[in-house]
Amino acid sequence: MKITSTIDAAGRLVIPKPLRKQYAMDPGQTILFVEESEGLLITAEQSPRRFIKEGPITAIDTGAGTAPSSLFDVSEVREEHLERKSRAHRRG
Asked: What does the DSSP assignment read for the chain?
């Protein structure tokens, strides 16, 4: 992929939206500029990973934001498991 951008008079560089989305760069996030022999590496600073707890769910915070609680709803899976267990018990 080749995308161009222009540095403005204040030295600001806009990272194009497709790249921000692909590399999970969010507003307010710190960006690192690292000099390497091949050129300049621009990368999003990764926040330290940590455990977070929301109700009965414990997850690892990767710094990419919090998923909605609805993604963690396992009630349907639980009901299916209990039904299979009940059928197996009835069979013998």
From this structure: ------B-TTS-BPPPHHHHHHTT--TT--EEEEEETTEEEEEEPPPPPEEEEETTEEEEE-SS-PPPGGGG--HHHHHHHHHHHHHHHHH-
pLDDT one-digit tens code per residue, 23-32 = 888 888 888 8
For the full predicted model, state whether its pTM sits above 0.85. no
Q: Is 63 exposed, middle or buried (0-12, 13-18, 19+ CB in 10 A)?
A: middle
Q: Which CATH architecture has domain 1-46?
A: Ribbon (2.10)
